[in-house]
């Protein structure tokens, strides 16, 4: 009987060994499998090694361990690039550029189109020194009217002249008579914003008189010149574009 029991025990050993080996091969990996298999991986890793795959290949059953994948496996959206709130830059402050202070001009001396009855033909310039107005006669009984500065007492005059020359930003050479009165004046001044003749000049006949712009617009409507007729620069530019050389000028 003892011999028979021993033979039965020997018969069951291979079967148990096979079951244990199978269990070892199916331990699920990790530290327990490492212990039971004597430090040798089984399953996919061992198979991969037998096929020549690199030893560091990740097991097919190993779950990714990055935070994004862990969150995805639990139904949590993976991390994306951080979303930065759209913050608009504050608007640059507007710099308010104020014009240089200019003394007030009576609105009567601002340019406007007015009714004007005269026997002079359209295109004629009529300067009314009493009114301090210059009229450019137009067809249909109208005129463009501008304010002017006129000659101070002792320098006013009346008569008829013709525009013999037109100049943009003219140079200024004070006449000898003026230099005798004002020896401090420069003998020559190039055209430009600081020039007393302003932006434009209409020369009247062979005289020293002109209709010209001014860098002192607050003097329009006053009697301050040496016989010339001053206008605001913007007004003389407008007049300059409307008349031609040969235009008749009547001063009254």
Automatic annotation (TrEMBL):
GO terms for molecular function: glycosyltransferase activity; peptidoglycan L,D-transpeptidase activity. One of its GO terms (cellular component) is extracellular region. The active site is at 212 (proton donor/acceptor), 228 (nucleophile). The keyword Nucleotidyltransferase does not apply. Keywords: Cell shape, Cell wall biogenesis/degradation, Glycosyltransferase, Hydrolase, Peptidoglycan synthesis, Signal, Transferase. Residues 1-18 form the signal peptide. The keyword Nucleotidyltransferase does not apply. Pathway: Cell wall biogenesis; peptidoglycan biosynthesis. Residues 123-252 form the L,D-TPase catalytic domain. It comes from the Bacteria. One of its GO terms (biological process) is cell wall organization. Belongs to the YkuD family. This is L,D-TPase catalytic domain-containing protein. It comes from Phreatobacter cathodiphilus. The lineage of its organism: Bacteria, Pseudomonadati, Pseudomonadota, Alphaproteobacteria, Hyphomicrobiales.
């Amino acid at each position: 009987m003892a011999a028979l029991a021993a033979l039965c025990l020997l018969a069951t050993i291979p079967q148990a060994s096979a079951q244990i080996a199978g269990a070892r091969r199916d331990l699920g990996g990790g530290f327990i499998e490492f212990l039971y298999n004597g430090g040798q991986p089984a399953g996919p890793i061992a198979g991969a090694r037998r096929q020549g795959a690199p030893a560091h290949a990740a097991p097919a059953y190993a779950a990714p361990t990055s935070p994004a994948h862990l969150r995805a496996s639990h139904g949590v959206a993976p991390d994306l690039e951080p979303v930065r709130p759209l913050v608009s830059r504050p608007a640059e402050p507007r710099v308010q550029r104020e014009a240089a202070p200019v003394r007030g001009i009576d609105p009567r001396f601002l340019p406007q189109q007015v009714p004007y009855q005269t026997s002079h033909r359209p295109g004629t310039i009529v300067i009314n020194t009493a009114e301090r107005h210059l009229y450019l006669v137009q067809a249909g009984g109208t005129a463009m009217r501008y304010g002017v500065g006129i000659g101070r007492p002792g320098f006013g005059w009346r008569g008829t002249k013709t525009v013999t020359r037109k100049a943009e930003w003219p140079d200024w050479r004070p006449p000898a008579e003026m230099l005798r009165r004002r020896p401090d004046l420069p003998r020559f001044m190039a055209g430009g914003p600081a020039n007393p003749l302003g932006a434009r000049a209409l020369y009247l006949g062979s005289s020293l008189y002109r209709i010209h712009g001014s860098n002192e617009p607050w003097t329009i409507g006053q009697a301050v010149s040496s016989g010339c007729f001053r206008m605001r620069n913007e007004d003389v530019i407008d007049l300059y574009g409307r008349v031609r050389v040969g235009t008749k000028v009547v001063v009254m």
